[in-house]
Every structure is written in structure tokens, then in C-alpha cells.
Write a structure and sequence with these properties.
alpha+beta; Nucleotidyltransferase, domain 5; single chain; globular; Rhamnulokinase; 18 strands; transferase; 7-stranded mixed β-sheet
Length: 444
């Protein structure tokens, strides 16, 4: 890495997925830790380490020992209600959309909470095992629904009201803070929510941009200086999540490529290129689904779930895999369109371009459909946005001349190829499709 060079070298990748244990979904956290150690050994000497991961999931400790294998956020034990606080109060404090996966709702169902003295989110748990240091980085803390988004601190009063003992909430770290060391190597807090790191690496040149961090989930939104905590934002189910350097990620979770990935798993078909070619040739707007429907959250049997959803909404079931894939991707593009238009209106921030980052930026058909649906140019890339944002924050902490997000983004922009997609087709066709999908009946 230098003033005009930013290059990632992949040392290793390893499997990660849910483990079904007597009807409950867990993460195999010890496998992940062992894989991290193996990866560090393969990498050899490095200047620093930084850990990011998905949000909301956690481990509970008692006197430094893990009490149980962390639950997977797709486990069915949670709900979207807690006692002691109204939805309006909760939003005014935390600014988060109501999702059953949020840490708060997981803790409401947690049987071991009373035995714990510390809660650590997944990247902080791995960091604790490496360093012995206990703390939680702020961008990930902001996804728990126990964090005061304006004060940028835990809301201990809220925690106690909803039955979470404040004693389990450890100190908070800022991205860029050196939090410990592993075998003499500094461990640096980065945007430990992978989307926070990914947004660091959005190669935006202007302020009027939106982003879609596209992977298993799609995180669709804007970058703001302050949270938007209006009733309109709450009812539209937008989150105000913390970003690096005090920014706000004003976004909404859309189910993302999970639906397609689960279909591929059920079909035992890993030839995505062929599926996308068939989808491109399929009839446009033949059938649509609501990708955020709750029946698509859990793993397993996704093609049948799609079929049941389509029948329930009075549509004709697709007869080919390509048509199913077309249905998924057009439905995602429509969900992006709806979310981005709502975000601009609620935050009073118009945008001129949409940046698609992460693995989904490689899906050319989805990127083109997104440009068509939104009526905005789409710039796709980089693919490994989370890793780039992670190392950029580390590099700044080690003294590289990257004073702000603009400098980091300029470096990404000058060192990575971006693919541009220009809107095509008829806007009226997308208007009609959105009306079908969201306007009336089961899609409303």
C-alpha cells in the first residue's frame, strides 16, 4: 500500500455457516477462531490486525469463559417485541429498524443472560481471544438496539428497562483505536460491522451518493452526518447505524442474494453464470415476490417457499429456474428502488449515483436491473469492500496519510476498476411493476 497503490492478497478463506443443534441454529465459533489462527500463520508477519464480521450476534462470558456457542441470527427463538419500552421510545434512543435478528430481541430469549458478566459481539469475541482485551467497537454496538445513537454510548437505562443487565455491556472502542496485541502485533479496532467497513471503501467522488452493500444481505442507504429519528423514518423501518469517523449509515436491510443462494443450494446448482444467462432471456416482470417477506428468512427449501409465496399472491408459478432467478433479481431491484426513494425523501438528501459494493457487484444482471429500476447510474465495485475498508482504517492508525474518508475513497477509486451501468428500458414498466409488488393486496 502506498499513495497510489492499494492491493489485497487473499491468504485463505474458510467455511462459515449455521450448525443445527437439536433444532437450534448456532455458529461454530471455535472453528472460526481456529481458522483465524491458521490464517494468521499462513499470512506470516504483518504490521497489524483488524477484525470485522456480520452484526447483531454475540457471545456471553462469565469470568472470561464463553457460556455457550453463539446463536445464529436466523434461529427462530426471537420475536419483535420486548417489555418495558414502546417502539417509539426505542427508535428515539437507538434509531434502529425493527428486526427479529437484532441483539435486543435475541437477548429477550436468552436463557444464559442471568449468568453472564460480559457480552461481546462476534468480532470483539474473536479479538478478546487474541488479545485478552474486552470491549465492543461502536459501529457494531450500534446494531444491537442497546446503543444511544445520539450519545454514541450504551443506553444503560434502556438496557435495564428491557431486562438486560447493564453490567454485561463493556467499554466501547472507536474504529482506529489500538485495542491490544497478538504475539507483538497491534490489533486495531476497525469498523467491525462489515457493512461499516464496506462503506469506508465506497469509491464515491461526490456527496450525493447512495450505496448498496450487496451480498447475502443487501444494506441499502445513504451516509449522513446526523441520525434521522423522525416518526416517518421509524414507520418506514430505516436504521441509523454508526459509521467510521462518526458518520451515520441511514439504511434499510433488504433480504439480498440469500434467496438466490438458497435456491442454488436446493437445486445443487453452482453454475451461477448459466442461471443468469437463462434469467436474462426470461420474460420481464412475469412474476414478483416481496424479498423481505418473513418466510424467506430461514434456511432450507427456498424454491418451494417462493412457489408458495407466488401462489398465495395469485400469480403464475415460473416453470424454469431461469424464470425464478429473474423473479428474484427483479424483485430485489424493485426493493432497492423503493428503499432508495424513501431514504432520499425522509433524509432530504437527493442522490445522483448508486454505488454497488461487495459480492453482488459482480452480478451484472442485478446491477443493470438496479440501474433500470432506480433510474440512476450504478457504479459497481469494489468486490472486497469490507476488507478494503478494514485495512484502510488500520493503515491510517499506523500513520498512513489518509486523514479522512474522502482520502480513503479517493485511493480506492484510483486503484480499482469500477463498472458503470446506465439506466435502460422504460421507467413506466418499473412503475407498473412497483405498483403490482407494493401497491395493493399481499404485496402492500
Amino acid at each position: 500500500m502506498s499513495a497510489d497503490r492499494l492491493e489485497l492478497v487473499q491468504v485463505t478463506r474458510f467455511w462459515n455457516g449455521p450448525v443445527d443443534l437439536r433444532g437450534s441454529l448456532h455458529w461454530d465459533i471455535l472453528h472460526l477462531y481456529r481458522s483465524v489462527l491458521d490464517g494468521l500463520a499462513a499470512a506470516g508477519p504483518v504490521d497489524s490486525l483488524g477484525i470485522d464480521s456480520w452484526a447483531v450476534d454475540y457471545g456471553l462470558l462469565s469470568e472470561g469463559q464463553l457460556l455457550g456457542n453463539p446463536f445464529h441470527y436466523r434461529d427462530s427463538r426471537t420475536s419483535t417485541s420486548v417489555e418495558g419500552v414502546t417502539a417509539e421510545e426505542l427508535y428515539q434512543i437507538t434509531g434502529l429498524q425493527q428486526l427479529p435478528i437484532n441483539t435486543l430481541y435475541q437477548l429477550a430469549a436468552e436463557r444464559l443472560l442471568g449468568q453472564a458478566d460480559t457480552l461481546l459481539l462476534i468480532p470483539d469475541l474473536l479479538g478478546y481471544w487474541l488479545t485478552g482485551s474486552i470491549g465492543v467497537e461502536r459501529t457494531n454496538a450500534s446494531t444491537t438496539q442497546l446503543y444511544d445513537v445520539r450519545a454514541r454510548e450504551w443506553s444503560c437505562q434502556l438496557a435495564e428497562r428491557v431486562g438486560v443487565p447493564a453490567r454485561v455491556l463493556p467499554r466501547l472502542w472507536d474504529a482506529g483505536e489500538v485495542v491490544g496485541s497478538w504475539e507483538g502485533t497491534p490489533v486495531i479496532a476497525v469498523g467491525s460491522h462489515d457493512t461499516a467497513s464496506a462503506v469506508v471503501a465506497v469509491p464515491a467522488e461526490e456527496e450525493r451518493f447512495a450505496y448498496i452493500s450487496s451480498g447475502t444481505w443487501s444494506l441499502v442507504g445513504l451516509e449522513l452526518a446526523e441520525p434521522v429519528l423522525t416518526e416517518e423514518a421509524r414507520l418506514a423501518n430505516f436504521s441509523n447505524e454508526g459509521g467510521v469517523d462518526g458518520r451515520i449509515r441511514f439504511l434499510r436491510n433488504v433480504m439480498g442474494l440469500w434467496i438466490l443462494q438458497e435456491c442454488q443450494r436446493s437445486w445443487a446448482d453452482d453454475d451461477l453464470g448459466q442461471l443468469l444467462r437463462e434469467a436474462a432471456a426470461a420474460r420481464p416482470f412475469a412474476v414478483l415476490i416481496d424479498p423481505d417477506a418473513p418466510e424467506f428468512l430461514a434456511p432450507g427449501g427456498m424454491p418451494q417457499r417462493i412457489t408458495d409465496h407466488i401462489r398465495r399472491t395469485g400469480q403464475e408459478v415460473p416453470q424454469s429456474r431461469g424464470a425464478v432467478v429473474r423473479c428474484i433479481l427483479e424483485s430485489l431491484a424493485l426493493a432497492y428502488r423503493r428503499t432508495l426513494r424513501a431514504a432520499q425523501q425522509i433524509a432530504d438528501k437527493p442522490v445522483d449515483v448508486v454505488h454497488v459494493i461487495g459480492g453482488g457487484s459482480q452480478n451484472e444482471l442485478l446491477c443493470q436491473l438496479t440501474a433500470d429500476a432506480c433510474g440512476l447510474p450504478v457504479l459497481a465495485g469494489p468486490v472486497e469492500a469490507s476488507a478494503l475498508g478494514n485495512v484502510l482504517v488500520q493503515a491510517r492508525a499506523l500513520g498512513e496519510p489518509l486523514p479522512d474518508l474522502a482520502a480513503m475513497r479517493a485511493l480506492v477509486r484510483s486503484t480499482h476498476h469500477l463498472r458503470r451501468y446506465t439506466p435502460q428500458g422504460k421507467p413506466a414498466d418499473w412503475d407498473a411493476a412497483e405498483s403490482r409488488m407494493f401497491g395493493t393486496g399481499d404485496f402492500a
